[in-house]
């Protein structure tokens, strides 16, 4: 019985891993949602570089403020560019372009910028990181950009002023049975950030989007420590009880 159930149990446990199975080799983000400074930097970058096009429809400004340790004033002054209220969900500054009269993202990019609330859960944090790291100029694309992780994506490299311009390097061994590992790039024009600093930018944004995808993960760890302590304590008590009961038998 158990043996027959095992594959299903395994599938349940590894479901998220399967859903996020990468079609292309990904880079490791090293994102850490328990690093509050990283989340705060990620949020600042997000609202300055991404929030014009993308919404976070399941996140509210006030919840984000609480979780990231920001005051209402800080959020409303520095992160909210849409005039939304503190308790509102996070909409894109730009309309998505539904209907004929309303011009918006869909008309400009051929594809409406999707909501990013759950992207980290669907695609994975490393996917987002790799995507942000993998833009390169391509004159054949309407936006002028292409991406090795998301081929022919209609999103331009919005971080190019920070990253600079990079070109994909033909990987060693390519053509002889393909190549393993994420593609390499050569920086042809430096940006305002060094490559290490830019990697940190991409890591911060990825961490922020991972947090947005599952805000409860922050609290869960806080509870988890108490649950473990309780179990430890209970084990001690149970052991003492056992000693007490079996004293007379032995
Ligand atoms: C100028 C508008 C615009 C801006 C600004 C922008 N994006 Fe996008 N983004 C798009 C569009 C359009 C797509 C859809 C691409 C497609 O499907 O071809 C997209 C797709 C994505 C996706 C893939 C989502 C999915 O699951 O398919 C991610 C992740 C993403 N953007 C992250 C970001 C991040 C992070 C930033 C800020 C650094 C950002 N975007 C800024 C327009 C934008």
Q: How would you characterize the overall build of this protein?
A:
By secondary structure, the protein is mainly α. The protein has a single domain, classed as Cytochrome c-like domain (Cytochrome Bc1 Complex, Chain D, domain 2), CATH 1.10.760.10. It is built from 11 helices and 6 strands. The protein has a two-stranded antiparallel sheet with strand order 1-2. Strands 3-4 form a two-stranded antiparallel sheet. The longest helix has 31 residues. The site of heme C has 23 residues, from helix 6, helix 7 and helix 8.
List the main descriptive attributes of the protein structure presented here.
250 residues; mainly alpha; Cytochrome Bc1 Complex, Chain D, domain 2; two-stranded antiparallel ribbon; two-stranded antiparallel sheet; 11 helices; globular; binds heme C
SSE topology sketch:
Layout: H1 2-13, H2 15-19, H3 36-49, E1 56-60, H4 61-68, H5 72-78, E2 89-90, H6 105-109, H7 119-123, H8 125-133, E3 135-137, E4 145-147, H9 160-163, E5 164-168, E6 185-190, H10 195-213, H11 216-246
Antiparallel strand pairs: 1-2, 3-4, 5-6
This protein binds heme C.
Heme C is lined by residues 49-50, 52-54, 105, 109, 111, 113-114, 116, 119, 123, 128, 131-132, 153-156, 158-159, 205.
């Amino acid at each position: 019985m158990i043996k027959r159930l095992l594959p299903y149990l395994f599938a349940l446990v590894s479901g998220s891993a399967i859903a996020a199975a990468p079609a292309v080799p990904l880079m490791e983000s090293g994102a850490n949602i328990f690093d509050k400074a990283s989340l705060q930097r990620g949020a600042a970058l997000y609202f300055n570089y991404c929030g014009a096009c993308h919404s976070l429809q399941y996140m509210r400004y006030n919840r984000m403020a609480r979780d990231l340790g920001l005051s209402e004033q800080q959020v409303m002054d520095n992160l909210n560019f849409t005039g939304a209220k503190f308790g509102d969900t996070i909409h894109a500054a730009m309309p998505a372009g539904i209907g004929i009269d309303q011009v918006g993202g869909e008309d400009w990019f051929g594809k409406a910028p999707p909501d990013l609330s759950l992207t980290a859960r669907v695609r994975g944090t490393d996917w987002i990181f790799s995507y942000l790291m993998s833009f390169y100029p391509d004159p054949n694309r309407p936006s002028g950009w292409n991406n090795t992780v998301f081929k022919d994506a209609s999103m331009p490299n919005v971080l190019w002023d920070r990253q600079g311009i990079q070109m994909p390097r033909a990987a060693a061994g390519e053509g002889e049975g393909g190549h393993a590992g994420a593609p390499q790039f050569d920086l042809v024009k430096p940006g305002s950030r060094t490559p290490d600093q830019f990697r940190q930018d991409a890591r911060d944004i990825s961490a922020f989007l991972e947090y947005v995808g599952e805000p409860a993960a922050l609290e869960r760890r806080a509870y988890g420590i108490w649950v473990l302590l309780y179990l430890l304590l209970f084990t001690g008590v149970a052991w003492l009880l056992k000693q007490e009961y079996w004293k007379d038998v032995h």
